[in-house]
Amino acid sequence: MADLLDNWKKKATDKRKENREYLKRAAKKRGIEKELPELHEEAFSKIDCLTCAGCCKNISPRFKTPDISRIAKYLRIKESQLIERYLRLDEDGDYVVQKSPCPFLGADNYCSIYDARPGDCRKYPYTDSGDFFEYINTTHLNTTICPAVYYVLERLKQIVP
Fold it and tell me: What single string gives the DSSP state of each residue in 29-96?
């Protein structure tokens, strides 16, 4: 199991089709989400987000109205200034960062707004909840962005083939 994370990104890319098919099947299995919290804990006992920050470097959370208010207050700027400086509307009409990596990510992989970060960041990578199966396309993409998602999926495939 120690080698599960070795070269995880390449393995995740190589297994894209297999993983998509597994996620589709697994999403239909009753009770499978009960395995997630333990696998989540197992994954994060082996993975330190600060060594990766793949999420902050490659994708953007949605910045919902309460997030924008909280972050603007945290930064001591107006909401309109936060939007103008850092955000844009995506094709779904959601506010996201203008470009990757996230402008709040430091060179040390620490988040400068961690205490006020968006809700999506707080929940990411969704490996401990039913969202893992509810948003299959997102989970599938995240296997190539986050080693924890890849780890949880591979371990889940061992437990619930």
Answer: STTGGGGHHHHHHHHHHH--GGGT-HHHHH------HHHHHHHHHHHTS-HHHHHHHHEEE-TTS-EE
Residue 13 CA to residue 150 CA, distance in Å, equals 10
Residues in the chain: 161
Cα-based distances in Å from 2 to 5, 25, 47, 125, 157: 7, 26, 11, 21, 16
Question: Which tokens is 3 given?
Answer: 């080698």
pLDDT tens-digit map of 124-153: 999 998 889 988 999 999 999 999 999 999
pTM value?
A: 0.89
Looking at this protein, which amino acid is placed at residue 40?
A: H
Q: Is the peptide bond before 118 cis (omega within 30 degrees of 0)?
A: no
Cβ-proximal residues to 45 (8 Å cutoff; 6+ apart), any chain: none
List pLDDT tens digits, range 12-44: 999 999 999 999 999 888 889 999 999 999 999
> Quick one: which of 126, 120, 160, 131 has its CA closest to 146?
126
β-bridge partners, 88: 96
